[in-house]
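question for whoever is on the cluster today: can someone run the full assembly for these? two chains, 229 residues total. i dont have access anymore since they changed the login thing
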Amino acid sequence: DAGITQSPRYKITETGRQVTLMCHQTWSHSYMFWYRQDLGHGLRLIYYSAAADITDKGEVPDGYVVSRSKTENFPLTLESATRSQTSVYFCASSEAGTAQYEQYFGPGTRLTVT
Amino acid sequence: AQSVTQLGSHVSVSEGALVLLRCNYSSSVPPYLFWYVQYPNQGLQLLLKYTTGATLVKGINGFEAEFKKSETSFHLTKPSAHMSDAAEYFCAVSDLYSSASKIIFGSGTRLSIRP
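^ ran it for u. tokens below:
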């Protein structure tokens, strides 16, 4: 299907485990983003990528790792999950990197760390 | 530094009534302003945006917002609420021509519609 997809949609993991959230887009957008959504905080940017093999930190990158070997995929890895990383994670993509270009969001992954 | 404040974490209106969701921002330079909507269990979707030009911006689903520089506001309105408008709404701000990585989102306002 065309668009931007995320998997899994729901994930429960234990403290200390590694978990990877997947994001896939079919538009060949150059820019991709990872956000976390927490009550009272809105969306906060974790990492973003301008192109394959180009990534950069956002506002809250600590505890997360990203990679982008292919334009269409942008996985987010929590190397050692903590309870504070319980959140809803959204991936987004954009045709270009300036703010005037619309970001298209995936449906989100709800992650619970026990 | 930029910031955005959404007044009211929860707004409830009757079906057919006016919807008014408030957003105030701070920015030292001309801003881009956005409203996004998030329906239950879905990602965010752009409702409308202000970049430059006309200060009254019309978006999808009958929503509009007016950029008021003197009041540093970008309130979202809809003349007549529909049940399908129930969702979370986010205001966002960035500097004119800045990177998309610099967009700051508000904490959101949940809109409920009473039958």
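summary bc i know u wont read the tokens: The longest strand of chain B covers residues 87-95. Chain B touches chain A at residues 9, 32, 41-46, 49, 51, 90, 94-95, 97-103, 105-108 (CB under 8 Å).
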